[in-house]
Amino acid sequence: MEKLLNELFERLSELYSLRKFSDLKALLLDIEPADTAYFLEELGENDKVLFFRLLPKQLASDVFVEVSSNTQEYLIKKFSDTELKEIIGDMFLDDAVDIIEEMPSNVVKRILKNTSPEDRATINKLLEYPGGSAGSLMTTEYVSFQSSLTIKEAFDKIRKEGVDKETIYTCYVTDSRKKLIGVVTVKDLLLNSYESKIEDIMETKIVYLNTLEDKEVVAKVFQKYDFLALPVIDKEGCMVGIITVDDAVDVIQEEATEDIHKMAAVTPTDKPYLKQGLFTIFLSRFPWLVLLMLSATFTSLIIGVYEEKLYLITPTLFACIPMIMGTGGNAGSQSAVTITRAIALDEVKFKDIFRVLLKEITVGIILGLGVSILCFLKLMFIDSLYNEVTPLIAFTISLSLFATIVLAKIVGAALPLLAKKIKLDPAVMASPFITTIVDAASLILYCALSLAIL
Questions:
Q1: Cβ–Cβ under 8 Å, residues 325 and 402
Q2: How far apart are CA 408 and CA 295, in angstroms?
Q3: Phi, psi at residue 241, to the nearest 5°?
Q4: Which residues in the chain are classed under CATH 3.10.580.10?
Q5: Residue of 187, 253, 244 whose CA lies nearest to 221
Q6: pLDDT tens digit string along 287-303?
Q7: CB 329 within 8 A of CB 403
Q8: Each residue of 364-410: pLDDT tens digit?
Q9: In the chain, fewer beta carbons within 10 Å around the N or the C end?
Q10: What pTM, to 2 d.p., does this model score?
Q11: Which fold is adopted by the domain 296-453?
């Protein structure tokens, strides 16, 4: 696939550089809008405008939706009012809302100025919903029927209105007050006679979303039921829009990216890496590093308290501190990341905490035994070549390593579940803070065991 795309982009570049615009337009008709948008992003700023104006009219809006917000803003500033009106007019309203939310106020005013009064009213209504809610993700462009229609009348309505709708495969049945009472697919319509009524074939067991539902819930419902679209109702139970699977996929990607950033102690951002300025990257990382540095003060204090005592027993004890801390931190992160992802996928809840802990403790014991036995052998046959290592010292260090791994598994599994319980983001607990907590706890455990045994 990648090879084909490279060949395609080379052909586009060749035609564009030779100014063979008629051949270029013909080729663009056979290319997916997302691929065309990718090619446009690679062009210089002036070339972006020229290339976009070469796009066939029926493709321009689809490509515009796919490019980055920075490119959208630049193109809008270069568009005439007529061009902007055509682009926004051909766009689905949920895509228009997404673009408006990314633009500065002066650009938003210009977009709304060049939007029809009906679309402007709908856009303003969608913008009133809280960011990240189902209402902010939905589109109002869907096909709906009265239950009394025949299938023939339903097809006539689809042919008349379908061209401007986000999807026509799934259609919705509402009563005179816009209450959602059923769902019917084009497959259902095709497999029944023209004389049949919608009320006879519609599905009345409906999965729907509320306008104020969080986008995480939206993503989970799509993952659970595998629908192409879901209806959205308001607090009165009236249908106000639909969310399509392409928007759900975007939400899933955003949520996964946000969790990964938080687990790596980076403030989440929706901008691509190469589009972020140096200062933006600095601000997203600096506060977390300072916070972790300050939290590591506890580790320094513990080492300061026990350093002299450990060194007096044998320098080997002090030399093994990084190994104990590193192994404990990694063991805790393994559990934390696994549980955080399970929480995100709704595989575990707080009520499962004891089952989770039992499993992680069992895994910790097995892992601890394996790692500590290898550690004992390493100390006796390798470290003993350049350090003073007796069997008792090797046993003490290995026992501490075993206890550290079990402790790290408990902490790594429990903290994300506790964070979820008190309405904090489990991803924040997944790696940086777990490592800091485990470092401090493992040091205390290691020093206490060493002093007690030796």
A1: no
A2: 17
A3: 175, -175
A4: 144-246
A5: 244
A6: 878 877 777 777 777 77
A7: no
A8: 999 999 999 999 999 888 877 777 778 888 898 899 999 999 999 99
A9: N
A10: 0.70
A11: Tetracycline Repressor; domain 2 (1.10.357)
